[in-house]
Amino acid sequence: MSVPEKHHYLPIFFMRRWADEDGLVREYRRPRHDLTSKRKAPAATGWIRNLYANENKADPIERQALEMIFMSDVDGKAAEALSYLEHDRKKPAEWELRAAWSRFLLSLLYRSPERVAYITKKVRDYEEDTLNPALVRRYAEIAGPDDPPTFQEWLGKAGPLTPDLRVRLIELMIGSRRLSEAINWMHWRVHQLDRLEFGFISGDLPLMISDGLGHSRSFLMLPIGPTRLFIASPDPNLINAFTTQYPHALEGAINEAIARQSTHVLIARDDTLREFVDERFRKGRAGKRSRLLDYITWNSPLHDVPPSRSFMR
């Protein structure tokens, strides 16, 4: 069995939606100062070696389980759900398909290199500053008969806890029943725009969200291809407010948001957006920071702001 070390934070099935007639996508990066632009196969972009690896596991499959088993299951079921969404243009009646798509949306919040680094830092801070002192005090109470006599000896034998905690936390957040059900109960729509100037882009942070998902004006938006946009909200009027925007204004605002909030890579169908990307990608972060893992959040068009930038802070 092949054990993957290339971990795709941009799922291959999803990147194929931006492929041109040759099956290639346009990849934009800014490794230092200058923007690079290359044509690549969907499988050759949006990955980092061992991004989700659990360094505490010696067994190769256990070490790569988050990518090999968990993320593979998320993406495989999401591909099914997306096929239904595009064919029927409505929310699946089958609950499993709804849950699969909701889980995929949540995965886009947590699987990017920036998110993984953020989670790792928070878990390490917790382990070093909060978890360990608490365990030091309680170790004698909770240690079993076969455990080392002191916490320091146990930790030295067990190794750092951060890799295990990070993997478990990512799984728990992507599988969050509370957030998944909030998305499942929203109204869903696939919005087709045929007269766009350049088409939508994607990136390592392609999902646009409101500040919180439990209020009446909450929403999620995700370009699911160069001319299609997925929108979810509890309020159908809010969805209508997005879909009745001028197509070029909607295209420009969403592309600007994705270009400014992404940090590693942007994906487009062709190179016509090079100048647009060069002016925005890694040139200062836009938007308001959410309590949800420091993620950037956006306003809805129902706020009293100019329509061309109506859902951007």
How is this structure best described in words?
The protein has one domain (6-112, 176-309). The chain is 44% helix and 14% strand. It has helices at residues 12-15, 60-63, 65-88, 95-110, 113-142, 151-158, 162-174, 177-184, 236-243, 247-261, 274-280; strands at residues 6-8, 25-29, 36-40, 47-49, 187-192, 202-203, 208-209, 220-225, 228-233, 266-268, 288-289, 296-297. The longest helix has 30 residues, at 113-142.
Largest beta-sheet details: 4 strands, antiparallel
Number of helices: 11
| Net shape | globular
Rg, Å, rounded: 21 Å
| Strand percent estimate | 5-15%
Residue stretches low in confidence (pLDDT < 50, at least 5 long) are: 304-313
Rounded to the nearest angstrom, the distance between the terminal CA atoms is: 48 Å
Helix amount: 40-55%
- By DSSP, the count of extended strands is 12
Number of domains: 1
Overall mean pLDDT score?
86
SSE order: EHEEEHHHHHHHEEEEEHHEHEE
Core attributes:
single chain, alpha+beta, four-stranded antiparallel β-sheet, 11 helices, disordered C terminus
In a few lines, what is going on in this structure?
The protein has 313 residues and is an alpha+beta fold.
